[in-house]
Amino acid sequence: MNTERARLLLTCADRPGVVAAVTQLLYEQGANVVDSHQHTEPDDLRFFMRLEFDLPGLESRLPLLERAMEPVAERFGLQWRLTPAARVKRMALFVSKQDHCLQELLWLWKKGELAAHIPLVVSNHADAREVVAPFGIPLHHVPVTAETKVSAEAATLELMREHQVDLIVLARYMQILSGDFITRFGGPIINIHHSFLPAFVGANPYAQAHTRGVKLIGATAHYVTAELDAGPIIEQDVHRVGHRNAVEELVRIGRRVERTVLARAVAWHLEDRVLPHGNKTVVFA
Amino acid sequence: MNTERARLLLTCADRPGVVAAVTQLLYEQGANVVDSHQHTEPDDLRFFMRLEFDLPGLESRLPLLERAMEPVAERFGLQWRLTPAARVKRMALFVSKQDHCLQELLWLWKKGELAAHIPLVVSNHADAREVVAPFGIPLHHVPVTAETKVSAEAATLELMREHQVDLIVLARYMQILSGDFITRFGGPIINIHHSFLPAFVGANPYAQAHTRGVKLIGATAHYVTAELDAGPIIEQDVHRVGHRNAVEELVRIGRRVERTVLARAVAWHLEDRVLPHGNKTVVFA
Amino acid sequence: MNTERARLLLTCADRPGVVAAVTQLLYEQGANVVDSHQHTEPDDLRFFMRLEFDLPGLESRLPLLERAMEPVAERFGLQWRLTPAARVKRMALFVSKQDHCLQELLWLWKKGELAAHIPLVVSNHADAREVVAPFGIPLHHVPVTAETKVSAEAATLELMREHQVDLIVLARYMQILSGDFITRFGGPIINIHHSFLPAFVGANPYAQAHTRGVKLIGATAHYVTAELDAGPIIEQDVHRVGHRNAVEELVRIGRRVERTVLARAVAWHLEDRVLPHGNKTVVFA
Amino acid sequence: MNTERARLLLTCADRPGVVAAVTQLLYEQGANVVDSHQHTEPDDLRFFMRLEFDLPGLESRLPLLERAMEPVAERFGLQWRLTPAARVKRMALFVSKQDHCLQELLWLWKKGELAAHIPLVVSNHADAREVVAPFGIPLHHVPVTAETKVSAEAATLELMREHQVDLIVLARYMQILSGDFITRFGGPIINIHHSFLPAFVGANPYAQAHTRGVKLIGATAHYVTAELDAGPIIEQDVHRVGHRNAVEELVRIGRRVERTVLARAVAWHLEDRVLPHGNKTVVFA
């Protein structure tokens, strides 16, 4: 892990001079920009920027840098965030019975492709224990029924607090989180929906896809909002299917698409590459 | 054009012995099978088959072959159709102002990639005249307003009869055909919808896609039924987009997807490769 | 596992009447065909067919069926093979240090997506032990150096015999098998090459790809022959890359393509869907 | 055409402060940046940047802006180029008998998707006349034989000079341009090669692909250098094929890929989005 690397994310109403001011500031502070993306949304002229830079002695110089940013932020009305790459996010994985997405994320994490701590896995079933065990991550089994939903969510929320979770990833977690849970958790929640949204919202999208006779099936990774399957989309992909594919084969083919799409979305989020903008996302990948 | 080539399409409830009976019959008649596809739908055990074969002296021997099929069809409850490849379909193209799909089809047709006669192009605008002219195909300008819709459809239907049209292709024709027109025309109508159906049914799908923030845009070629954008899907494809793409760019990128998807669907239909099955299609491509 | 299901694969010079004869025979024996593919290669008019069928009491009736096939095979010059689906192949996995393909295959196998016995994993490194352990499969560590190559191959060959291995899969095994090994093993060997063959034959294909500045990277699963990376291709796929991707990222992106491509190729082979034809393959997927 | 819009392209050895200096300069001149890309090549730390901006009164203020750039360029060792968007490139299209790429480019040009003047089309055959005529562009028929190659190239070069051509696009021009021609023309030449380079260099790539039994066929748009099919790649794409596809079908399927790939590459070049870097390209699309 590069301890001198940090990321600066910012957004503001598009105004000339922002880039010059921010890059000049980083230059003066001795930072060396290694990656840079920017975008102005044509609809509302909102400006977005992500800068990745190296700064020798980052840890000790960070407060200085943050203070230097303040007048610039004031001048241009910036919303901004400065994150050392070494300060990795704490990610909780939620899963039900289908464990392919969980398995994929754990593999990639072990290979070093996902920059995160994973303090715990939460499941409403005990089945995932076997998958989780070799990775040395505790599985918290929190059963959920219609009757126990409120208390189960409270217990889950308590786990999130206790483990200081920054990000929840629903890796095929088949419970719908209440608006109350989403609000109280407060942080980002990424879900993988097993269809090309907005087609086939809700339950059994592969069965819906089979019934409609589509020629491609897809998966969508999105941030969770109170409205089901309607949050900002981070990533999508599809795979070709045909009349030979029964529903079970759509499920099997779809599993690969889900794994790929969720893994990309989570990696991008962990690297601060996804900037929400209303109900959409700007992805600097 | 191979004058000895024909296609046999058939469907029936799946019963052992069908393939043996039909292939034995063709063998006895002296036909040489050059391409063969079959499929049994797992949901309802419906069986579908397409055989392409060469038979010397096809034209004179066709009635004989058809008579020989009758007892087999009777025995297995076959719905079947025998078509000489040389008997190409008569296809009418309908277009409004956007002419990219029209151009693509005309150009492929001229290259010999679409086996059809095109006796006429119908448009509710006069703009297409320039596109159509170099191909020597008459353009019939049939303006449509809310007031004249009934008479315009009647005139259009008369044109279809007069030109003995087998197939209508809506190559970005922005009028919704009435259920009455569809019924009275009686033949297949292929439409290109500029979204990945069932996402973004109806008007302005690219604007809908932009608003929803999808990461892929698509196009769908489908048979037209009385319910808008809900008929059997023949072909679909998508292309990746991102936050950099404004709506106009989605439109531009989408045009290429539309051209590709419609061209494939029409070619398959003309070669009798698309077998409708309820609200789905079996495509033997 | 369906104990009544079997597959008939056959190839011959294309002659009218083959399909009729074979399907009639299966019908008379009481078999119910559930899947069927056929293909005539236009270059040399070679005919290929794969039939999947259910036959009640398969095990006891198989010898009868095979006897019935003999005169038909004689008459049409068929090469043919009849395999009960329940008689799954015995597959050995070979791996070096990169274990992503091994993991993918083991995981799909555990999910029931690969119909095989896996009696052993062979590696020239001990690293894979940790990956293999949770699956309960023995790892045989057979180190290979330039000096020990002959004896190592002999030991490996002995392992293959002992475990009655039908198929070897080189899941990123970085040793080149000698022509002698290939001949003496005698069975099919599937390799995953980490490029879109025939581009970038040999070592370090991602570095080669980076140097050439290609815009897509790929992977190729192929049968191994004595000539390096030149055997019949079973499956290929690619993924888009760009100037932002350093070699290490090509490697990372490529890993996903390799996993997907090898998994598809192995699954097809195990289900007898791949028919070699000279240096090419007919894939009935 | 936006007469206030311009593009600044620059490259230099990566040094801190470049972005700050350049964006500050543009800000002081009153320019409003609307699109920005930058990239540092990890291999050699070469820095690339493309800025698109609006500047009221661009035409009269351009000399001022260029003078202001000089000290910055000096300080950072910049290679740079400032181009008003309204100063569109003059593009010559070269074609032989296969006219699908020519047709595609002319269509897109007429739709306004290619920002270029097309003063002439050059062909070694007269066949393209019919395609070119409706677009009102003169076709220069310059036959080439082994004997006349030198004089034909001289005549062609003269045409380029006369029409002040900035860019030559080889839209399936089946003559190999001599190193001498390339040098003397001096400007960029884009070729479409009908394979996924570096696979299948040279003649008849589809036949080569068919012989090798690949499962994807591709096309590559690249800048022409003296070494055949070895210049910097701008864009590539592929399409899936299988055992059913005879060579003629590979050709037909490939035509669509060629059209798409060449169109993208040409559009990017015309918008100054392609920056050559050694034998590779940085594409800011």
From TrEMBL, chains A, B, C, D:
**GO terms under biological process:** 'de novo' IMP biosynthetic process; one-carbon metabolic process
Q: Which GO terms describe its molecular function?
A: formyltetrahydrofolate deformylase activity
- Biological pathway: Purine metabolism; IMP biosynthesis via de novo pathway; formate from 10-formyl-5,6,7,8-tetrahydrofolate: step 1/1
What positions does UniProt annotate as the active site of this protein? Answer: D229
The keyword Amino-acid biosynthesis belongs to this UniProt entry's keyword annotation: no
List the InterPro entries.
Answer: ACT-like_dom_sf, ACT_dom, Formyl-FH4-Hydrolase_C, Formyl_transf_N, Formyl_transf_N_sf, PurU, PurU_ACT
What UniProt keywords are attached to this protein's entry? Hydrolase, One-carbon metabolism, Purine biosynthesis
Boundaries of each ACT domain copy? 7-90
The EC number(s) attached to this protein equal 3.5.1.10
Catalyses: (6R)-10-formyltetrahydrofolate + H2O = (6S)-5,6,7,8-tetrahydrofolate + formate + H(+)
Any one Pfam family here would be ACT
Alphabetical list of PANTHER family matching this protein? FORMYLTETRAHYDROFOLATE DEFORMYLASE (PTHR42706), FORMYLTETRAHYDROFOLATE DEFORMYLASE 2, MITOCHONDRIAL (PTHR42706:SF1)
Function summary: Catalyzes the hydrolysis of 10-formyltetrahydrofolate (formyl-FH4) to formate and tetrahydrofolate (FH4).
| The family this protein is said to belong to | Belongs to the PurU family.
Name the record gives this protein:
Formyltetrahydrofolate deformylase
| Organism name | Melittangium boletus DSM 14713
Source lineage: Bacteria, Pseudomonadati, Myxococcota, Myxococcia, Myxococcales
Gene expressing this chain:
purU
